[in-house]
Design brief:
Strand order of the largest sheet of chain C: 7-6-8-9-10-13-14
Shape of chain B: globular
Distance between the termini of chain B: 29 Å
Strand content of chain B: under 5%
Number of strands of chain C: 14
Order of helices and strands of chain C: HEHEHEHEEHEHEHEHEHEHHHEEEE
Number of helices of chain B: 16
Order of helices and strands of chain B: HHHHHEHHHHHEHHHHHH
Number of helices of chain C: 12
Distance between the termini of chain C: 89 Å
Helix content of chain C: 40-55%
Helix content of chain B: over 70%
Largest interface: A-B, 49 and 48 residues
Largest sheet of chain C: 7 strands, mixed
Chains: A mainly alpha, B mainly alpha, C alpha/beta
Largest sheet of chain B: 2 strands, antiparallel
Shape of chain C: globular
Structural class of chain C: alpha/beta
Radius of gyration of chain C: 23 Å
Oligomer: heterotrimer
Strand content of chain C: 15-25%
Chain lengths: ~290, ~325, ~425
């Protein structure tokens, strides 16, 4: 087993880990602002994939070019979902919130099957085909572009939260809802914003994945467990935590699967997660 | 006075209705639906001991359910042990597993605990799936041979399964009730509502949570044995999946968390929605059943966050609770 | 008086005929995964089964199969077949529940389905409890016919035969092409289908004198298959034997290409590799994949009814038959044949007729010797074929006697296609 092979596997893990991170960033943002765990988050990813797919199937639009449009579409969807449903359960107990988002998950999967059939779909041609090879290492261009896109989007969210007034208002609401409201921040708007951004992140991840991953109504289920792990591992509500946790989990999954047994790659990831929260219950970067 | 007796009276009426049901309704499909409701209700009530009274939301209870199913099945297939003994052994094993899992996990609070239990459930499923001695991904098929009471297998008759499921549910309710009234229940509520005050009063949080998870997992495991003996086939996907764990929580939430009868009502309603939407729309192959099911869950959760029990209590706070409550539950049992 | 008695007789005859008229519809319950991860396959199966029933009920005699176009079942007074579909969602308990509902509520005379071996297991158990015939057309777990059931029949061959086919093919290939295959690596998803196939592959490899150099199991619907492919690559096999469903099949092929992995041959175990979506998505990269199959359109060269049946399905749903849907179609015909010969809807009569089933191969759209059940209920005349993707189509390459094209071996490099 050469060092090169290990390096190749490690970097592959980083690439997929960055995409995981983007999915989790949206989830953790929603949680940080409103303390709600969104079980339907994987379905935002699914909708992002279908948006890309239909753009391609109907108008031959490349998923990469329609990416901003997908982000906008999902942003609107997330915000609308907030106004239609989530707004009504803000003060409900944690369990009812879980119940609601679980119902939404089933509903969206059912709708996707109802509207678009249960078939597996794929985007056959994109601008990102082929390989990147250097120093004896090789990576698929779609995977590399997906990872770079994920980093850029996560960075944009980070910048928005830290460097804009609106982002600061969102963070203030996350830190203390009442205090922020007293300072004149409309918490309803902030919540809708969080859902919009959260959905858009997952949607962008979906669009990026659509260049190489099959698209089907239940595709969200493959990613949601990992997203949950990242959010808890990184610390509920911590964007930076989710990001680093994504890279860590990607590496553990791919490299661990390679060195041990791929059948147990999720066992490795979940055990790592349990170990970390056992030692540090608030997660890697969460507030104690 | 009336209010005090309304709920117990409704409960007794529901139990009587459930006991008479298979004698009055001959349709096997309906009888089967009733058994499914009873089995689901039992799981919800058992889940409620930990999730409702102690406020620890577990989304990994399928691990205990599967333990019950696997232990009794293995004992009966390999050693010829009666599934009734297997049921006790399964319960005991599940309790041990629960203590093992609970001890580290109870350090975690709220969502962190819920996430950790999902992780534990997924790990157990993956391990069993790859473990040949436990049947691996193929699972176990129990022989279909009418074997009477000790063998725990009946051919066409649904009555034995119905009454076993009902007894198991009543027993689980009884345990739940006893726990709620005992010192353990008192401390559990204190832990749930005022964890800091409870701690400052010297209540050992972890110890009482461990009691709760041991009892809860034992009861869930007995449900697992019943499942195995009824369906005569178990595999990781059907007895250890996270969706099953979520379902146990769902029925409790739907009915009313931390109430005795809530999970029963929740199970009745949820099973009814599930079965009806599948029977009516399932054959179309367009996912319509999922749309209806999902939509109903969302509507109930949004408009009735306190669950069905909360709804009934708000609607009939004192006087009228007696007849209506009984009616709602009696209907439920069908 | 004679006229009166004649009227009386006529009335009596009408009265007697009335129940027969009511029974003019013969209900068959069909259970498939119509929601959930396998819903798209479930729908294909449903469409194919419905086509079979409509052909029997209709009067279009253009398809030269017995019963096709006979306007119902002749020996039951032209009674029409009505398929009652149910959804098992991939859940064994739901399968059993639906089987019971179909039997007791819908009063179906027989059951068919369920594609998933795990669900076929529980649903057929319900049928056994009620004493209703269950005909399985497309589940391949060998264990299903070892349960000693009296009401369970299976038309499709099971995995033991299929896996053996793959090895016979390799042996024949070595002889014919003078190639040398030694090292085999297994890649399989780790549910019942994949692990079962992997075990059989291991035991047959020993029997046929091949060396298993790697066995990689992975969880289905993985988000990435990089570690799996790296492990395969490290084991340096001549041939990869793979069992994957569609999504994983596509992702694994893309990962092979990404990581520059290319064995001499890729011999797949049906499922995801035999799917029109696989061809469409993979394009040139899917070419030259070899897979075991039970049906291929190019068999029409020797069996014209295959093309005819395929045209009928195409006209209706715009898709070709595949191994799964052709088997679902065949199962309904086999069941209808038995019910017709039984001349009755009594379960015992249908069971007896099923036991006596002997449909010759030329009356099937399958490349089988026919349908004849052994004591366990397994069709002993089933057979498998091996197909290869060539020019974006599945062509039969083995048995060599049925082959329409010569097998391409070894796999050409990714960039030379």
């Amino acid at each position: 087993m050469t060092a090169q092979l290990l390096l190749q596997t490690l970097l592959s893990g980083v690439l997929i880990g960055l995409v995981y991170a983007l999915v989790a960033v949206g989830l953790t943002l929603i949680f940080g602002v409103m303390d709600i765990v969104n079980f339907a988050h994987g379905e935002f990813l699914m909708l992002g994939m279908y948006a890309s797919f239909w753009g391609f199937a109907l108008w031959k639009l490349d998923p990469i070019f329609t990416l901003p449009l997908t982000a906008l579409l999902l942003f609107a969807f997330g915000a609308a979902l907030y106004h239609a449903v989530i707004r009504r359960i803000i003060d409900a107990p944690m369990l009812s919130q879980i119940f609601t988002s679980f119902g939404l998950m089933i509903l969206f999967r059912g709708l996707a099957q109802y509207l678009w059939k249960p078939d597996f779909r794929s985007v056959d041609h994109t601008v990102v085909e082929g390989k990147v090879a250097f120093a004896g290492l090789q990576f698929g261009l779609p995977q590399v572009v997906a990872a770079l896109g994920a980093v850029a989007t996560t960075g944009a969210v980070w910048w928005f939260l830290r460097r804009t007034r609106l982002g600061a208002a969102l963070e203030a609401t996350a830190a203390d809802r009442e205090a922020a409201a007293l300072m004149g921040i409309d918490s309803q708007k902030m919540f809708a914003l969080a859902w919009g951004i959260g959905a858009a992140c997952a949607g962008v991840a979906g669009a990026l994945l659509s260049t190489y991953y099959p698209i089907f109504p239940e595709v969200g289920s493959s990613f949601i467990l990992i997203a949950f792990v990242l959010v808890a591992l990184g610390g509920f509500g911590s964007v930076a935590g989710a990001f680093w946790a994504g890279i860590l989990v990607g590496i553990v999954e791919v490299l661990g699967g390679f060195l041990w047994d791929p059948a147990y790659k999720m066992v490795l990831v979940l055990s790592l997660y349990l170990l970390v929260v056992w030692l540090r219950p608030q997660g890697l970067m969460g507030k104690a | 006075m009336r209010r005090r007796w309304a709920w117990p009276a409704a409960g007794a009426a529901a139990a009587a209705a459930a006991a008479l049901f298979p004698l009055l309704v001959a349709r096997p499909t309906w009888q089967n639906a009733a058994i499914l409701m009873l089995m689901t209700a039992q799981l919800g009530v058992a889940w409620n001991v930990l999730g409702g009274y102690a406020g620890q939301v577990s989304l990994g209870h399928a691990a205990f359910f599967g333990t019950g199913a696997y232990v009794s099945t293995l004992l009966s297939l390999k050693l010829g042990v009666s599934p009734w003994l297997g049921m006790l052994a399964g319960g005991g094993t599940a309790s041990l597993l629960a203590l093992l899992v609970g001890w580290p996990c109870f350090r975690l609070k709220g969502h962190y605990f819920a996430m950790a239990t999902i992780a534990v459930g997924e790990i157990v499923q993956a391990l069993v799936n790859g473990w040949d001695a436990l049947g691996g991904a193929v699972g176990f098929t129990l022989p279909l041979a009418e074997s009477g009471f000790w063998g725990f297998v009946w051919g066409r008759s649904k009555l034995p399964y119905h009454y076993i499921a009902l007894s198991l549910l009543l027993l689980t309710l009884l345990v739940n009730w006893a726990v709620a009234r005992s010192r353990i229940g008192y401390y559990l509520r204190a832990i749930k509502d005022e964890p800091d005050a409870a701690r400052s009063l010297g209540v050992s949080l972890t110890r009482y949570k461990l009691y709760a998870i041991a009892i809860s997992s034992f009861l869930v495991a007995t449900g697992g044995t019943l499942y195995a003996q009824k369906e005569l086939f178990i595999d990781p996907g059907s007895t250890l999946s996270t969706s099953l764990s979520i379902k146990m929580a769902l029925v409790a939430i739907l009915g009313g968390v931390g109430t005795l009868g809530g999970p029963v009502l929740g199970a009745v309603v949820l099973t009814f929605i599930e079965e009806a939407s599948r029977i009516v729309f399932g054959g179309t192959g367009r996912g319509t059943d999922l749309v209806v099911y999902g939509l109903l869950i969302v509507l109930i959760a949004v408009y009735q966050p306190a669950g069905i029990v909360g709804f009934l209590r708000a609607r009939w706070p004192a006087r009228e609770a007696e007849p209506r409550g009984a009616g709602a539950r009696g209907e439920g049992a069908t | 008086m004679p006229s009166v008695s004649r009227v009386f007789l006529a009335v009596a005859a009408l009265c007697l005929a009335a129940p027969a008229a009511a029974a003019e519809e013969i209900k068959i319950g069909v259970i498939y995964p119509l929601t959930g991860a396998a819903a798209s396959t479930g729908l294909e199966l449903k469409n194919a089964a419905q086509l079979a029933a409509d052909l029997i009920d209709g009067t279009d005699k253009s398809l030269a199969l017995p019963l096709a176009g006979s306007g119902g079942l002749p020996r039951l007074g032209g009674a029409k077949i009505k398929l009652v579909f149910a959804d098992h969602q991939g859940n064994p308990q739901v399968g059993a529940t639906e089987a019971e509902r179909l039997i007791t509520q819908e009063k179906v005379v027989a059951l068919a389905g369920c594609y998933f071996s795990s669900v076929t297991n529980t649903a057929s158990q319900t049928a056994e409890r009620y004493g209703v015939p269950f005909l399985n057309g497309e589940s391949s777990s060998p264990a299903l016919t070892t349960r000693g059931f009296k009401w369970f029949f299976r038309t499709t061959p099971h995995d033991e035969l299929f896996v053996q086919n793959s090895f016979e093919f390799l042996k024949d290939l070595e002889k014919k092409k003078g190639v040398h295959v030694k090292r085999i690596a297994i890649l399989a998803e780790n549910t019942e289908f994949g692990t079962g196939a992997a075990k059989l592959q291991e035991s047959f490899a020993k029997q046929y004198g091949y060396e298993i150099v790697g066995k990689v199991l992975y969880p289905p619907k993985s988000t990435q298959l990089t570690s799996e492919v790296q492990k395969l690559k490290a084991s340096n096999p001549d041939v990869v034997m793979q069992s994957s469903y569609l999504g994983d099949a596509i992702l694994s092929m893309k990962t092979y290409k990404e990581l520059g992995f290319l064995p001499t041959g890729l011999v797949a175990n049906d499922a995801g590799f035999n799917d029109s979506e696989f061809l469409k998505t993979m394009g040139k990269d899917g070419d030259f994949v070899i897979s075991r199959e039970v049906w291929a359109l190019d068999l029409a060269a020797q069996k014209p009814i295959i093309a005819k049946a395929n045209d009928l399905l195409r006209a209706r749903h715009g898709v070709n038959f595949n191994g799964n849907s052709a088997r679902a179609f065949t199962a309904i015909f086999a069941l209808a044949d038995a019910i017709n010969r039984a001349g009755s809807t009594r379960p015992e009569a249908i069971q007896k007729a099923l036991r006596e089933t002997d449909i010759p191969g030329d009356q099937l759209i399958m490349p089988w010797g026919g349908i004849k059940f052994d004591a366990t209920g397994q069709n002993e005349k089933g057979a498998g074929i091996i197909v290869q993707v060539q020019g974006g189509k599945y062509v039969t390459v083995w048995p060599f006697a049925l082959a329409s094209k010569d097998v391409v071996w070894p796999l050409p490099a990714w960039d030379k296609r």
